[in-house]
Amino acid sequence: MTLGPLIVQSDHTVLLEVAHPDAEDARHELAVFAELERAPEHIHTYRITRLGLWNARAAGHTAEEILDTLNRHAKFPVPSGVAGEITDTMRRYGRLTIERDADGALVLRCDDPAILREVSSAKKIAPLLGNRIDDRTFPVEPWARGELKQQLVARGWPAEDLAGYTPGEPYDIELAESDGDADGEGAWHLRDYQAKAVEAFQRGGSGVVVLPCGAGKTIVGAASMAAVGAKALILVTNAVSARQWRDELIRRTTLTEEEIGEYSGQVKEIKPVTIATYQILTSRRKGEYQHLSLLDAQDWGVIVYDEVHLLPAPVFKLTAELQARRRLGLTATLVREDGREGDVFSLIGPKRYDAAWKDIEAQGFIAPAACFEVRVTLPESERMDYAVAEDQDRYRIASSTPEKQRIARRIIDKHPDEQVLVIGQYIDQLEAMAEALDCPLITGQTPVDERERLFQAFRSGEERILVVSKVANFSVDLPDASVAIQISGSFGSRQEEAQRLGRLLRPKSDGITASFYTLIARDTVDQDFAQNRQRFLAEQGYSYTILDADEV
């Protein structure tokens, strides 16, 4: 018998032996229910969490499947306590249901009176329920539907919401048979995984679809809107994303420009399909949210949350009051740096579908990528500045070293015929880099029209190199970018790593492998934060080569 690549431990961690021939298969199956915690060279550590198991259960996986994965790939027998805990945890999902009674009123039901008694007596849950109807049923006020789901998750009893949704005002949206472009692509159809994602959303009525950048999340959103057939509100990260959504909807559906409204800092239109930014929705004046009326401006049949892992905290509160409307979250990763994955689960909905990055890459729908960490040594003078700096200043000193300019130029010279993005966090560092490379710079201060002009110049090949701040992390379609050089970031953010890698994953016309470089100051907090970012790449099955600056 071949010993597998996994060691399952009684503290619910799972160790993966990276060099094992079955490691890739085991990693893909683990990703369904476990979260990667650490990813050094040889042994990766995953943790099995309640939320991960509930998401797997909501996506249609069973405890038997998960235990089969662990047993098939385990080097030693799975501890009986872990196996029992997995079964018990997954059994908890759906024991409580939120439904409609015969009169259409909202109720909380459970087939076990003891469980219902336990949750209904909890201090934060009792005020959300009315007077008990019988041993298995409590009435729920419509306003409490979202908050009740949050509190039940916190209590360890996630409810399955079967209460249905407001149909919304009907509006005919159909997928176009042709993309209308003169680029020769012509007729198109949903890819198999996109169709499965739409079907999973329809079945659940609300929830999150996890797909890599470049895999066509916008098309999944458009197809879901067509399946619902009602007016739609789309929430996006910024005005550039809003315009890209509009362009893609016009290209892929029967919607016209006149039917799609933009609601942002620049424009405030409300149309049958309206695209709004998170920023405008959360802007306040004298302590009041000014634009909340947008959420009820139309009888929306579906609300689409783009990049749901970036959903601002105030939007959770607003979403808690929108539980009667269908909700679709789109993201490349469920990881949130603020730890509010439970609120995404409760309020947007559980994970309905995900597809492994490497599987979609193998089908040719996203480009293969090679990832490199290049370690730079701080010069003596900067090393002294770093040594005496306050803790909060050390990351900036380390990640902004001018040494990175020299290495970035060397990397660009290695890829003379490729489109290159240089991505960073600090504006002064980016300005110096753009000047040194004699190329355009795009930051949050760049007007939207100028950003779009520069992005278009990059797409057309007129500009080969762009230096960009984090405004390019999100929903910017740059299909020909094949090299990214990351010179600084948001303190080891895994979600940012997903977005930045995603800039490179659009399939290339010449089929080349994309190259993703991260420049790191050796023996500093810059290197410490890089370990966290590596976790995301390892999670998705990408190898991560560590180079010394002199090896570039």
How many strands in all? 24
Mean pLDDT equals 86
* Terminal residue distance: 43 Å
Shape: globular
* CATH structural architecture of the largest domain: 3-Layer(aba) Sandwich
- Work out the radius of gyration: 24 Å
Domain Helicase ATP-binding: 198-352
Domain Helicase C-terminal: 406-552
GO molecular function: 3'-5' DNA helicase activity; ATP binding; DNA binding; hydrolase activity
Pfam families: ERCC3_RAD25_C (PF16203), Helicase_C_3 (PF13625), ResIII (PF04851)
Could you walk me through the main structural features you see in this protein, from its secondary elements to its overall organization?
With 552 residues, the chain is an alpha/beta fold. It has four domains: 6-92, no CATH class; 96-157, no CATH class; 192-361, Rossmann fold (3-Layer(aba) Sandwich); 367-551, P-loop containing nucleotide triphosphate hydrolases (Rossmann fold, 3-Layer(aba) Sandwich). Helices cover 37% and strands 20% of the residues. It has 20 helices and 24 strands. The protein has a seven-stranded parallel β-sheet, with helices on both faces. Helix 14 packs antiparallel against helix 15. The longest helix is centred in the C-terminal third of the chain and has 15 residues, at 525-539. The two termini are 43 Å apart. 45% of the residues are buried. The mean pLDDT is 86.
Topology:
Blueprint: E1 6-8, E2 13-17, H1 23-30, E3 34-38, E4 43-48, H2 50-58, H3 63-73, H4 80-92, E5 96-100, E6 106-110, H5 113-120, E7 137-139, H6 145-155, E8 160-161, H7 192-204, E9 206-210, H8 217-228, E10 232-236, H9 239-252, E11 260-263, E12 273-277, H10 278-282, E13 284-285, E14 288-289, E15 302-305, H11 313-320, E16 326-331, H12 341-348, E17 351-354, H13 357-362, E18 369-376, H14 380-388, H15 391-399, H16 403-414, E19 419-423, H17 427-437, E20 441-442, H18 448-460, E21 465-468, E22 481-486, H19 494-502, E23 514-521, H20 525-539, E24 544-548
Parallel strand pairs: 5-8, 9-16, 9-17, 10-12, 10-15, 11-12, 15-16, 18-23, 18-24, 19-21, 19-22, 20-21, 22-23
Antiparallel strand pairs: 1-2, 2-4, 3-4, 5-6, 6-7, 13-14
Helix pairs in contact: 2-4, 3-4, 6-12, 7-8, 14-15, 19-20
